[in-house]
Amino acid sequence: MNVLVTGGAGFLGSNLVAGLHKAGHKPVAFDVAPPGPEALIAAPILASAYRRGQIGDIARLFDICRNEKIDTIIHTAGIVGLETSLAEPVATYQVNVMGLINVCEVARQLGMRRVVFVSSNAAYHKGSGPALGEADAVFSIRDGNPAAHYGTSKMAAEAIGMAYASFQEVDFLAARITAIYGLGMRSPMYIKPMVEGAALGRRVRFETGGPMKRDYTYIADACAGILAMATAPSWPKGEQRVLNIAAGKAHTAAEVAEVVRRVVPDASIEIGAGLTPLEAENVKMRTALDVAAAKRLLNWAPVWSLEDGIRDYVEHFRGFAQAGH
Q: Whose CA is closest to 267, among 188, 206, 197?
């Protein structure tokens, strides 16, 4: 397959590019910024596979997809985060919603085989049990999404993609991911400063955040699930098109600190027992994701435990740091 990865020079995108290349496909990375050193380590092919462009530039998107004979798009490009979405709501919707529309429209007009949209657990409003399932609520008539404009943009983009699937024959699938970590990650999520600080022998302090929980998913598991969605044969008629791709188990930031201390015995990490007002709101949808549907439809399951993932992250980061980056 010839696969365009939007946001392909980023953390997740570069690892997807690497996975596609390893599996014998032709990846093309579409991104507004060129790949940095961590992305090039993850995917050396980016040196030749990178194409500059903004997701809002549909003409550029059409040109690249035609020239590269793209038949599948994995759409990871977007503005990420609750705080960023509150500071830049207009940009969040322009990039996250209109970007998805541009991708679906290009796929529709060029007759592509599939679009895989990398969504988020932030699309959920609240759950009905111990783990969030794909049928749980993504909208409330009383309260806004706990992840503010970011979560709302993901929810809206999923709905638009489903309309393209139902009425315009775009084979659209959405992967709800959560708290992906590993070398090259950009969002701190507590785990990045803990792991990288410990690996460098630095003291790490947080005034709050101990109870903040996430379903931390190692980058290798996330990529395996998303690539399984991209390469799966024709999707069964009438089947769900939104799948959770996650570790399936939530951990608090305090628990992450304990794991880092086990992996790096001399790690110096302290984290407060409180939450900021934003964290207290956001934690409402921070729980484990039910991955049973992905297991059933893709024969995929997460294989990395939190401790194994952190250990691998530490080893890769130490090598990266020793190389002078």
A: 197
